[in-house]
Write a structure and sequence with these properties.
With 277 residues, the chain is an alpha+beta fold. Helix content is 16%, strand content 38%. It is globular, with a radius of gyration of 18 Å.
Length: 277
Amino acid sequence: MTVPFQKYHGTGNDFVIIHADEAVPDRGALAERECDRDDGVGADGVLFLALEEGFTPPRVVMTLVQPDGATAPMCGNGARCAAEWAMERTGSDSVMIDTQAGTLRADRSDADDIVIEMGSPTFDPEKVPVEADEQVFETEIEGLEVTMVNTGVPHAVAFVDDVDEVDLGAAAPPVRHADVFPRGTNVTVASPDGDGGFFQRTYERGVEGETDSCGTGAVAIAVVARRLGLTDADPVRVRPPGGTLRVSFNERGHATLAGPVEHEFDGEMTIESPTRT
């Protein structure tokens, strides 16, 4: 049996999209197989999407399954890809996206970027979560000086002189798996770009490696940089390897994430039947 899929990416953060109505007996196994860049389609995750009828603006339910087979509550670039997918099918330039981290609004900008609300970031240790009695700012954890924030998912953010000088593959895993993080954490490093913004590199839990872009990580950089007094810009420009993202803040302190999304190609993949015992 085969099912159709679409491939999208937001600044290099790429996703396989499958309609949630398709019969996929084991979503985790499919994600593990098809996210593999050698033997599968290759992606940072699989988005299962479903349009709900009767809503204005249109509403789409998003479930993200990561390459390790686990479900993630939120992904900024994934949500922006889901928004583009829904806009293409409804003709609307605004959609609502239901994620496990809450319902978010996305809009198409005049520049054809997808702009999505990212909610209210929190430093509350119980909500990050991190085992600490108070908010964690510039604290050394497993060799990195990090600030902890949840922007839909947890991020340990470290500001360094030059992100390219960081051996992220070696430095990030001890932090990602540190005992103080009961659910693990993403690890994001940032450095000034010399023009008021920041370069970004992120090691993502669930992917268990570095990605070309991370939307929640970009928001985490902007939020932490403003909190530490490293910038008062709005928007804050963040530059992961895959492109440029812009993080803005509204009057309620909610963050928005803006950047391009591209529809790469369509295809079909084989669905393996569950093994009978």
